[in-house]
Amino acid sequence: MRVFMAEDNLCAQNLLKLVSHGNAIIAEILRLKDHKPSVYLLDTKELQQKYQDIIMDFSYFKISDAQEKKISMNMKLQDLDDDLKEQYLELINRFYLLFENIYQYIVDLNSFVDQLNDGAFIQQNIETVMRDVEGKQLLVRAVELVPTV
């Protein structure tokens, strides 16, 4: 019987990469969790009043065009927006990439399971993966990471 984690076992290597990706996402979450810019929390009345036209919740997506026009027509809002971008753009990009990676992880996991069910991996299916101790551990870990991320 072949060793599941053999380098030539494409199924095992894909599963290992998937779990590694999930663990990297968790590491990035742990790195970023303490770096939320306080200005974006809007935890004081002063911050709320100052940034109410710049920092919004998801309702922004319904009025994005009008909001962008409002900012572009007002120099004070433009300056405030530019200051926020200058100060926090790198951190915001890291958060964006984190969310994008979470989405991609779930897409990749679904694709892997579909491939496993469709027979894309020769001599591998859910049952054979679950019969192998390492395969079972990796598959369970891959699924376990979903609610964690």
Please mark out the parts with pLDDT under 50 across 5 or more consecutive residues, or reply none. none
Radius of gyration: 22 Å
Compute the number of strand runs: 0
Question: How are helices and strands ordered from N to C?
Answer: HHHHHHH
- Which class of secondary structure composition applies to the elements? mainly alpha
Number of helices: 7
What is the helical fraction, as a range of percent? over 70%
Alpha-carbon distance between the two ends: 35 Å
Residue-averaged pLDDT: 94
Q: How many domains in all?
A: 1
Mind summarizing the main beta sheet? Answer: none
Could you tell me the strand content as a percent range? under 5%
Shape: elongated
Key features?
mainly alpha; 7 helices; WASH_strumpellin
